[in-house]
Amino acid sequence: MRIVDVREVTAPIASSIANAYIDFSKMTLSLVAVVTDVVRDGRTVVGYGFNSNGRYGQGGLIRERFAPRLLEADPNALLNDAGDNLDPDRIWATLMKNEKPGGHGERSVAVGTIDMAVWDAVAKIAGKPLFRLLAERHGREANPRVFVYAAGGYYYPGKGIEQLRAEMRSYLDRGYSVVKMKIGNGVAEDRPRIEGVLKELDGKAQLAVDANGRLNLEDAIAYAKMLRDYPLFWYEEAGDPLDYNLQAQLAEFYPAPMATGENLFSHQDARNLIRYGGMRPDRDWLQFDCALSYGLCEYQRTLEVLKTAGWSPSRCIPHGGHQMSLNIAAGLGLGGNESYPDLFQPYGGFPDGVRVEDGHITMPDLPGIGFEGKSDLIKVMRDLAA
Ligand SMILES: O=C([O-])CC(=O)C(=O)O
Ligand SMILES: [Mg+2]
Fold first, then answer.
1. 322-339: per-residue pLDDT in tens?
2. DSSP per-residue codes, 139-208
3. Are 313 and 43 in contact (CB under 8 A)?
4. Distance in angstroms (rounded) separating the CA atoms of residues 376 and 57
5. pLDDT tens for residues 236-289?
């Protein structure tokens, strides 16, 4: 049993949306195929992975550094003790050989993308959905019913409050109970946007807001004073993701739930947020995204760090809207997952036929991560592996 090839293609996920920090006019992602020599149900097992929106494709790093390390390794050194499957942690250690600690940059995205493909292959070789395999490995009961919220509400050229309200209404109509919109361009611009959306939701769903790290401390506090007038689900990523002191000071002005973490890429960074960021385990939310942060091998270390610090995995609702985090949520008891109903297709979303009801989806029993159940996605994946 061995990995015979690691393929990467950088694909566009561009659109005309913008958050308070970046626009998505040139956004890309990396799609990876880890091809094995294992055959299941008459088909060669190929694991697939991709990185979430926001950090661009990582083709250079994957092709020049990480894929060659896997292909040059002794194939037996990448297997589990029984020799009947790949071992994700041994593969992870091989990927990270001769990498210094710290300074996570974007190698964490390259590794996270390959790691997703490896876990997909491992669960397919085991003949199980990844969420069931994870629950078994951790001695837990899987829960296929997962909370999901609808992320959107971007700044959009020519889009006024009426269109924003219509967008949010469409998420309500599709079964979501929590929706999210962007803020950060200024209190004067955002207050009427928020009030318009809250009117549209009319108490039938809750609203989260996301400043994408745009605000300095003074502006983050000014926003907090405005936002705390409204019953929001959370106030996300107010300031720079690595400014733990800003987050901690903000907590003093914002008693309602805060959320952050999508731009922290290692368990060490996550631990610093917990130690120094003033985040409160009884109400705040952690959004670390394995696809951007060295993958599930690292995410399990992050969950250990959280546990040690008294945080439940149910306080985690990852960024990114991919099926990988849906599996982690169902298998390891996270609080839910992000979803972008109208963006970043065909990568995001759910297997065909999965519907949102009362803000939750139910995972179908598909082997691996479940990409084979999403026809538009598996088509581009198989094109890469062909
Ligand atoms: O706009 C983005 O970069 C995505 C984002 O922050 C989110 O989904 O929370
Ligand atoms: Mg965000």
1. 999 999 999 999 999 999
2. T-----EEEEEEE---B-TT--HHHHHHHHHHHHHTT-SEEEEE--S-HHHHHHHHHHHHHHHTTSSEEE
3. no
4. 20
5. 999 999 999 999 999 999 999 999 999 999 999 999 999 999 999 999 999 999
Place of tokens 């903000």: 250
Nearest-atom number in ligand 1 for the CA of 338 is: 8
Tell me if 212 is assigned to a ligand binding site: no
Q: What angle do CA 347, 350, 355 make, to 5 degrees?
A: 145
List the structure tokens of 75.
Answer: 């194939």
Determine the distance separating the centroid of ligand 1 and the alpha carbon of 335, expressed in angstroms.
18
Give distance in angstroms: CA of 212 to centre of ligand 2: 5
Give dist(CA 161, CA 196) in Å, integer: 7
Q: Which ligand is nearest to the CA of 150?
A: 1
Look-up: residue for tokens 């130690």?
A: 275
The gap between the terminal CA atoms of the chain, to the nearest Å, is: 20
Give the tokens for residue 171. 């998420």
